[in-house]
Amino acid sequence: MARRKSRKAKPERATPLASPPVALRPPTPPVVASAPSTVVAVASPPVPVLEPAPVPTPRALPARPLSGAVLHAASGRRALGGFFLSGLLFSLLGSFLPSWGYHLRSDYLTVGLYFLFLNFGVYVAFHFTQWLLPRRGVRFVLALGSALAVASLIYLASVSGPVPPSLRMAGLFGVGLSAAMVNTAIFHAITPMYQHDPASTINLAGIFFGLGCLATSVLVAGTFNTYTAEAILLIVACIPLFYFLAWLRAGKSPAPPVADFPSLRVAMRDFRSPGAILFTLLLFFQFGNEWAIAGWLPLFVVQRLGASPSTGIALLACYFAALLVGRIVAQALLRRIKHSRLLLFSVLGAFFGCLLLSLTATIEGAFVAIVLLGGGFAAIYPLTAESIEHRFRSYHPGFYNGIFSLGLTGALLAPTTLGLAAQYWGIGSIMWLPLFGSIAVFALVLAIWLEARLTRS
Questions:
Q1: What is 73-456's CATH topology?
Q2: pTM of this prediction?
Q3: 22 sits in which H/E element
């Protein structure tokens, strides 16, 4: 009987709880039940008591800061069209010099100073825009650059009459400032496109830039005999005004945070690399070659061959068209022809084009020389863009814009130097600079190819 009573004295097992998920409580010490002296009943091993586990509350993730350094891909593609405005502004002076009467007088030193002040604007814009972009954003800089372009063109229209040349230099400074501001902001806007396909992005930028240059020369050539210089400048000012209104209506872009890009130390380390130095030198000489022709071709054709000003500007339009078409054709030929052979044809075409243009005495000969020049210069940029596709993958807009700005500096220093050369040795000497520049570009492209092969290996 006592044994049966002890069995009844055993505690019952606790039943587990239903869902939600459970957690174990630490086991309690054993409990010994007292009984008569003859029989001792020991309690069964304790069962852990189960309790509901606390349900974790979802933690709010910190908000990811908006990347204002770039726009999204669609906005980047739209901003890429801003290179059209940049090309229009940079090519304005070369197309517009006959409208100010410089085809009638040999004031070459003043023409060189015009290009120098345009270059000053590019230099100031490079530093000013780097300070402004993190504070106000891409959209603001694009709109401000377009507004400055409108104001500068209106000012140049007001001083297009018989005024001292020094008054025009302030307006040209403003044109260079506005064009470089637009350039810098676009380099920030196209970051997603560049990171996806560097070579195609560079070529598209060059095509839009070339279209802007072509539009300027066609517009000035078509209106030269119809409108005054003031009216032509006001017509040109309508294009940056359209861009200003378009970017005001675009979605607001926040200020670009510095954290989205490599640090200044990384950028400077990249700039000290052989590939970056060679690419910068190539742009410096290649842009100098192209813009030595673009800045002085109308004056050269008018004063050397006796052509009319409208014909000289029309030949400049042919030169920009040859550059544009040649760049597109060269891009299509990159996969079908050996690169070294294409480079050789390009350098020979540019060399013989300069030589023929310096020796010709007819408009027809000048046209053939211009086509050779444009086709020769055109292939250099796609060849280089493809060879550096594996370089600069950690895209820094300020770093790449610095390289491009140095190239533009060479583009505008070349016609400045030609102003001094033409002042002392005559207008015929301006063709010798791009002649030797083509040889320098040939050597630099070979060096870039060698560096790219060594880097990949």
A1: Growth Hormone; Chain: A; (1.20.1250)
A2: 0.75
A3: strand 22-24
